[in-house]
Amino acid sequence: MSSLKKFLKEKGYQKIKLNYTATQHFELKAKINDIEGSFILDTGASSSCVGFEAVSHFNLLAEDSDIKAAGAGATDMLTQIAQKNNIEIKGWKKKKVDLVLFDLTHVNNALVKHKAKKVHGIIGADILKKGKAVIDYKSKNLFLK
């Protein structure tokens, strides 16, 4: 796989090491507004999200939203939105990123139940698309351009 890594590096991609949680999810560190947090990488999540309990941690400005969140056994969850945030994942940066804010209690309860650490949020398909993501499952690396 070093040829894939070399090819992507030549194309300007940043390599981000991923860690498996005890629940077999990929986890990574990211900074929102220059503040680091822990996130699950979720290719099935259409939007990147932050839990309500981490709004002050990342200095987010929460606004009401009509969007209802659903996933992982929960539906019609109330949300808010935080607009125009900066995100950085190991050297890859994007400005003016909108984040969905919702109750991540059910996600964190499931992680803790399986002896994994709680997360601040979820990196979803919106960020993966913006970064032209390539995920190498064998080497546990995410590449963003």
UniProtKB/TrEMBL annotation:
A GO molecular-function descriptor: aspartic-type endopeptidase activity
One family name in Pfam for this protein: Asp_protease_2
Classification via InterPro entries: Aspartic_peptidase_AS (IPR001969), Peptidase_aspartic_dom_sf (IPR021109), Retropepsin-like_bacterial (IPR034122)
GO biological-process terms attached to the record: proteolysis
Highest taxon listed in the record's lineage: Bacteria
CDD domains xref list: retropepsin_like_bacteria
Stated name of the protein: Acid protease
Species in which this protein is naturally found: Salinimicrobium marinum
